[in-house]
């Protein structure tokens, strides 16, 4: 998950930048103040409890804050990640956030701190007071808020500096310049936070169809080595000429070709949320290669989806496909179909065992309509996101 805490003193511009970040990165917005007001307005049990405390002049305790944040997170488990605004404000809350995200098999990707000189902060808030109507935008209250920030919130900076995921951002300048700095920092960080899916299954199990749908629905980049090789063949490139005889026989092309194509796709999509790999790895050696390719971006395989289909059903599907415009050269004869299925049994089945040992394996029945199969796979994706999402290392 891409989890960001936007940090900075009052008047630093967190509200303005939050709106831009939410739209660009498709995140769930968590502002403790906004959520509290919403809970109170809806008169939920938590809202009533918080209102009673506030009405008596007290501060809402961390126990309630945690509950409302957890409630919001659980309601948005399928989002790409979370943008925290106004939390954590103390070191205690920083530890609370660590525990909360750990419970979700995740962690804070980065803390971005908008740095603005104190005199400019005061000028901004005094200027804002002319139009905002906010009671706390007067010089006396502003000074109190800034002192509170210095005393309680700045130590949170040190907490994340020690963890190595604290990034100061120059908060002086126009909105677009500051936003550009934030995005550059996030894009460099999320290279370490990919969610990567490998699709395996017999020839004819529907990996291509399902891979494209899953990629679109989960904001992932679809990488099919077969599709990429066919594109190279059509373009008459050197890689295409090298791959062509192997694809015509329905055999696995040399690893050097697949490596170059996958490296290129990853480089072209560095800011993606992650990748879905179809057609690679098909051997144990390729599984090791993919691990190496992903490790270059401090990433790894997050989930392996196995599309389970009987040999008889696989043969029927491939035979049916051979009579359509989607036919592949290697669908042209029963002998070639059997050769591909035999190759799968000998070379690809061990790859499934490899991922089982890594506890990233999910099995799904590939029989049924396209929609039925997709629903099963989407459920597996959701479980994978919840259970085995990779925390930033």
Q: Can you describe what's shown?
A:
With 393 residues, this protein is of the alpha/beta class. The chain has two domains: 2-27 and 79-191, P-loop containing nucleotide triphosphate hydrolases (Rossmann fold, 3-Layer(aba) Sandwich); 195-387, Rossmann fold (3-Layer(aba) Sandwich), CATH 3.40.50.300. Helix content is 57%, strand content 13%. The strands form two sheets. A five-stranded parallel β-sheet has the order 2-3-1-4-5, with helices on both faces. 36% of the residues are buried. The model is unreliable at 388-393 (pLDDT under 50).
List keywords for this structure.
single chain, 393 residues, alpha/beta, Rossmann fold, 2 domains, 5-stranded parallel β-sheet, 10 strands, disordered C terminus
